[in-house]
Amino acid sequence: MSLEGKKLGFIGTGKMGGALIKGICGAGLFSPSKVYASDLYEPSLDELKQNAGINVSTDNKVTVINSDVIVLAVKPQILRKVIESIKEDVTEDKLVISIAAGVKLEDIEKEFNDGTRVVRVMPNIAATVAEAASAITQGKNASKEDAEDALAIFRSVGSAIQVSENLMDAVTGLSGSGPAYIFPVIEAMADGAVYEGLDRNSALILAAQTVIGAAKMVLETGMHPGELKDMVTSPAGTTIRGVRVLEEYGVRAAFMNAVIESSNRSKELAK
User: Which of 19, 52, 120, 148 is deepest in the core (most CB within 10 A)?
Assistant: First the structure.
């Protein structure tokens, strides 16, 4: 289905749900009047109504009935209970998108009535600033058009790709959890500059922009990160000294292990 003229619903307005709503509305893909959201926590609904101008309710059925695309933005532990409460209102003309970490399509689909169209997505919190990294995978009843609609929604708040479901745990460990790996890096880089005399605000600006710039160089040049690193590390220069310290402290291995451990936890949540 085309997204033109469609209405979008969110069940769950926590940190991730709220970030996606604000990002999607800010991108202009859906006007706020065509976005519905429900949650039991009224303060989050009030904040979204005031700042994003969307329709809010404490009743999930209101969101489902008024929406063509329904995003399940709830924790994995309560997903089954939420589905049970709305399944009779989720007709075959509606598309369901789940962002519950670790919950497989098969387990989601069996909770709904036969024929329900489901797409699973793993976004990240950077949707707040329209720089999310998301991956989608489509269920057995979802069409190619459904997948394209899901990609369009999540590309409105960053980048989105389609992967096979067996790779979704790796996506969770990499981009889903990834911002939390980078925030301490930015803070630590800034701390180093503060130690050397730079004021805190200036240090944070330079550290954060350095991360943005490095990431854009990878994405826009298409060059391997190792090639880009070599462009900066002149013989006996300042940068190679810093790189040597990172290698001595096992930073590369630490990041690899962080992704692997997070991916393993995603697998555990599915059991």
Answer: 120
